[in-house]
Amino acid sequence: MKKTMLLITSLITSGTVLAQNGYSVDEMKDVLKYSGIRDIDWYNKGDTAFADFKNEKESVKASLSVGRGMLEIQLSSDAPFDIYGAISCQKLTKMIPHEETSGWSSPPTNDEKKIRAVFDMDMKQNSTNEGQLNGWQMKIQRSQNTVICSVMKKS
Questions:
Q1: Which residues pair with 99 in a beta bridge?
Q2: How confident is the model over 31-70, as pLDDT tens digits?
Q3: pLDDT in tens, 7-22
Q4: How far, rounded to the nearest angstrom, does the alpha carbon of residue 78 sit from its chain's CA centroid?
């Protein structure tokens, strides 16, 4: 009990939170609502949920299943990559159990630094970034107007 209390106290005072479990498919659908994908956009085929969404800045195709999430984003010529590409892709990492800061003023955790290194907001066109975090593979590919990103649990 003392060890548990000590761990909880140290996590609270250090400004970090250890996510015990990654988000489920249904929880990820809620996260992706902030990217414009509504409940009505989702449909299932087998054990995978798919969504298609389009607005004036982007066209998004998403797929989510246990242990895997993918986005393909077609950007308009005036859509900034950092907002419509990198940040959208970073949302997929909610599926990965990892240590997160508890607030905006706290410095990023080592896990968050790994995520940001892969889903880099300053990523150059025609490049690919990959990394691993807690048994998951993270990947993003950027071409001129297309971003494809994924997180996948390694078997």
A1: 18
A2: 999 888 999 999 999 999 999 999 999 999 999 999 999 9
A3: 333 334 344 454 457 9
A4: 23
Q: What span, in angstroms and rounded, lies between the C-alpha atoms of 153 and 134? A: 9
pLDDT in tens, 87-100: 999 999 999 999 99
92 Cβ neighbours under 8 A, 6+ residues apart = 28, 69, 70, 71, 138, 149, 150, 151
Beta strand extents in the chain (DSSP E only)? 16-18, 42-45, 48-54, 58-65, 68-75, 99-101, 127-133, 136-142, 146-153
Distant-in-sequence, close-in-space partners of 66: CB < 8 Å, separation ≥ 6? 24, 25, 47
Contacts 24+ apart (CB under 8 A), 33-38: 34/91, 35/60, 35/88, 35/91, 36/60, 37/62
Distance of CA 71 to the CA centre of its chain: 10
Q: What are 62's strand-pairing partners? A: 51, 71
> What is the pTM (predicted TM-score) of this model?
0.85
DSSP for residue 86: I
